Amino acid sequence: MDQQDNIKKAKIFSIVNQKGGVGKTTTAINIATAMSAIGKKVLLIDLDPQGNASTGLGVDISERHNTIYEVIIGQIDASDAIIKTKIPNLKIITSTVDLSASEVELVNIEHREFLLKNSLEKIVVDFDIIIIDCPPSLGLLTLNALCASDSILIPMQCEFFSLEGLSHLLNTVGLIKDNLNQNLAISGIILTMHDKRNKLTEQVEEDVRNFLGDKVYESYIPRNVKLSEAPSYGLPGIIYDSKCTGSVAYLKLVKEIIKKEQI
Questions:
Q1: Dist. CA 137–CA 2, nearest whole Å
Q2: pLDDT tens readout for residues 3-48
Q3: Rounded to an integer, what distance in angstroms lies between the CA atom of residue 65 and that of residue 28?
Q4: What is the DSSP code (8-state) at residue 120?
Q5: Integer distance in angstroms from the first to the last C-alpha of the chain?
Q6: What is the C-alpha to C-alpha distance for residues 126 and 42, in angstroms, rounded to an integer?
Q7: How far is CA 242 from the centre of its chain?
Q8: What digits encode the pLDDT tens for the residues 160-177?
Q9: Which of 10, 97, 158, 229 has the CB geometry, 3.0–4.6 Å to 127, for a possible disulfide?
Q10: CA dist., res. 137 & res. 143, Å (int)
Q11: Helix (H) or strand (E) segment spanning residue 82
């Protein structure tokens, strides 16, 4: 056996949904923080040109010198783009609006869907977990994330149109698994913005659980003001207010993910 095979490599998760506003970045930030709080060495990659994950972890735009954009276009190594956050054990590769140009710039490059995967090869041994916050689309950036990942987490808002979007996303994941990354697995669906007072929420939850069974995490994330406020302070919700219902839900979810994925 090659000595390289004995080296423990990070488990790579993509947090993906082509719909915006489903709590994707909030989920990425809070899962990454909770994982780091239990002693895991975590890297969060902000792959969204909006840069919300970077902002949500308190990294000002003026501090984002080497970003994931420079990594993907091959200007720098991934190791040169990693910066510390305020949270112990949690590091980040940031993003700016420059990243939106990569969709066009990379279109003629051979094997362009593996650029991120190749970029991460040298750093996967430095972390226990890598979490990729994807943009709200199924374009080239998300394709790169899915080709680089072991598992995907799908935050899904409890509303009717989400079911249609979920079906499209699952088809896309199936195609990627068949053609580009046979090891890609769906870790689970995370129900977000859950409102017990709303009948539609209950109906959507029931439909998704009937359709996907244990692929849907038992834990769900409720609508919560504190989770919405936290990014404006540059903090994850579970640090901004660890006792609010949203934070408690994310901590419960992370325990579920750790048990399911055996990490």
A1: 38
A2: 455 678 899 999 999 888 888 999 999 999 999 999 999 999 999 9
A3: 22
A4: H
A5: 23
A6: 9
A7: 21
A8: 777 778 888 999 999 999
A9: 10
A10: 10
A11: strand 82-84
Cα-only R_g, the chain: 17
pLDDT-derived band at 158, boundaries 50, 70, 90? confident
Whether 108 shows a pLDDT value over 60: the answer reads yes
Give, for 23, the enclosing helix (H) or strand (E).
Answer: none
pLDDT at position 1: 41
Is the predicted pLDDT of residue 181 greater than 90, yes or no? yes
* Third-level CATH fold of 3-261: Rossmann fold (3.40.50)
In the prediction, which pLDDT does 167 show? Answer: 86
What are the helix (H) ranges across the chain?
Answer: 24-37, 52-56, 68-72, 102-105, 115-120, 140-148, 160-179, 199-212, 225-229, 237-240, 245-261
Instruction: Name the nearest CA neighbour of 250 among 12, 230, 212, 150.
Output: 230
pTM of the model as a whole: 0.93
Confirm if 16 and 176 have CB atoms less than 8 A apart. Answer: no
Q: Which of 135, 211, 218 is nearest to 166 (CA)?
A: 211
What is the distance between the alpha carbons of residues 124 and 126, in angstroms, rounded to a whole number?
5
Give 260's contacts (C-beta < 8 A, 6+ positions apart): 187, 188
Tokens of 105: 């710039």
Question: Tokens 């939106």 — which residue?
Answer: 100
Minimal CA–CA distance to 189: which of 226, 231, 148, 217?
A: 217
Cβ neighbours around 179 below 10 Å, total:
10
